[in-house]
């Protein structure tokens, strides 16, 4: 049987055509916070509302960045590159075996061994932990910067992207959190 070309799905020739990702089509911001970000941070021993908000804003913002603003080899909604992922493991987690064990516990049992970078795309808990480590290894003082504009500036200066601005963070946050929710700031 010959397939009807009019019924075939269009081929995506470039992964950049897939971005920006509408993450909120999958889950509301408060649901992401309550069911993924907060449990992941709690598992890691982090209890900081400002860090939860920074990671939620990071997730919302990087998922909305255009392909030109995302790092070229970026994987998943946090847009983490394989190089950044490897650097986290080699230069940060290698020095903290207990934390490394916890982070590894978030990864899938077999797939991580074959393609650890793929976890950044399909395991949001694991990707959240790696995104947290991108901030944590910089030893930022997040607790004292809990208002939304300050978190946006931290994202702009401290999280890897190409030309993203604090305004992108604020726009993504306001778009996602316009309804009253526990994440409103």
Name a few traits of the molecule:
disordered N terminus; mainly alpha; 185 residues; 51% helix; single chain
Textual characterization of the structure:
The chain has 185 residues and is mainly α. The protein has one domain. Helix content is 51%, strand content 0%. The chain has helices spanning 29-43, 49-64, 82-92, 97-106, 111-114, 119-122, 124-136, 148-158, 166-176. α1 crosses α2 (49-64) and α2 crosses α9 (166-176).
Please write the string of helix (H) and strand (E) elements: HHHHHHHHH
Number of helices: 9
Gross geometry: globular
What's the total number of strands?
A: 0
Instruction: Give the biggest beta sheet.
Output: none
Query: Gyration radius, to the nearest Å?
Result: 17 Å
| Domain count | 1
Q: What share of residues are in beta strands?
A: under 5%
Helix content: 40-55%
Class based on secondary structure composition and strand pairing: mainly alpha
Kindly, what is the distance between the CA atoms of the first and last residues, rounded to a whole number of angstroms?
Answer: 57 Å
Q: What is the arithmetic mean of pLDDT?
A: 83
Low-confidence stretches: 1-20
């Amino acid at each position: 049987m010959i397939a009807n070309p009019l019924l075939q799905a269009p081929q995506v020739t470039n992964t950049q055509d897939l971005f920006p990702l509408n993450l909120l089509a999958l889950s509301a911001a408060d649901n992401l916070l309550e069911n993924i970000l907060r449990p992941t941070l709690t598992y890691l021993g982090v209890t900081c509302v400002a860090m939860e908000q920074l990671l939620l804003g990071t997730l919302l913002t990087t998922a909305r960045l255009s392909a030109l603003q995302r790092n070229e080899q970026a994987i998943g909604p946090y847009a983490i590159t394989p190089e950044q992922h490897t650097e986290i493991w080699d230069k940060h987690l290698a020095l903290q075996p207990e934390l490394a064990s916890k982070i590894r516990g978030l990864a899938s049992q077999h797939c991580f061994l074959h393609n650890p970078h793929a976890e950044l795309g399909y395991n949001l808990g694991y990707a959240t932990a790696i995104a947290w480590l991108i901030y944590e290894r910089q030893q930022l003082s997040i607790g004292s910067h809990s208002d939304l504009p300050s978190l946006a500036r931290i994202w702009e200066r401290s999280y890897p992207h190409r030309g993203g601005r604090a305004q992108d963070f604020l726009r993504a946050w306001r778009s996602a959190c316009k309804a009253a929710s526990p994440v409103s700031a």
